[in-house]
Amino acid sequence: MRLHSLPQQITFKAKKRVGRGHGSGKGKTSTRGTKGQKAREKVQTSFEGGQLRFIKRLPFRRGVGNRSGEETIAVNLDDLKTFTKGSKVNVVSLIEAGIVSAGEAKKRKIKVLGEGEVSVALKVELPTSRDAAEKIKAAGGQVLENSSSSN
């Protein structure tokens, strides 16, 4: 075994102990320089020398708003092509079909919109747009009246 083949030891730098007398080399001003606000007390990083801080210059933005983007998940009629004749279309069936994720369905509401065409009769148990409801009924399907809403 030779010195160059020994594994290198990981050494940790000791914490700087300041203000322990001038014999330590870090006494008197304790590495803070001389005089001034920063020598006497801790100064916030956001402090701009008495000038109005940047965060205070910004306009008020009260509340957090909608973090997840839109309020509703839009499901178009084209997305419902995977369903067979007479099947129910609800939140559970949309999750099983992979059209909507379970996490998104918990956070937001789902609404069926009239983009595209539907060729099979479906029983829709979700809020629908007026256009989508007409197309579903024209294909021989059903829309629960209490769940449909206007645009």
Give an account of the 3D structure.
The structure is a single chain. This protein has 151 residues and is α/β, with parallel strands linked by helices. The chain has a domain of 72 residues: Ribosomal Protein L15, Chain: K, domain 2, CATH 3.100.10. It contains five helices and five strands, in the order H-H-E-E-H-H-E-E-H-E. A three-stranded parallel sheet has the order 2-4-5. Strands 1-3 form a two-stranded parallel ribbon. Strand 4, helix 5 and strand 5 form a beta-alpha-beta unit. The radius of gyration is 33 Å and the shape is elongated. The protein starts with 36 loop residues before the first helix and ends in an 8-residue tail after the last strand. The model has no long low-confidence stretch (mean pLDDT 87).
Q: What are the key terms here?
A:
151 residues, alpha/beta, Ribosomal Protein L15, Chain: K, domain 2, three-stranded parallel β-sheet, two-stranded parallel ribbon, 5 helices, 5 strands, 20% helix
Q: How much strand content do the residues show?
A: 5-15%
How far is the N terminus from the C terminus? 82 Å
- What best-fitting shape do the alpha-carbon axes yield? elongated
Extended strand count: 5
Radius of gyration: 33 Å
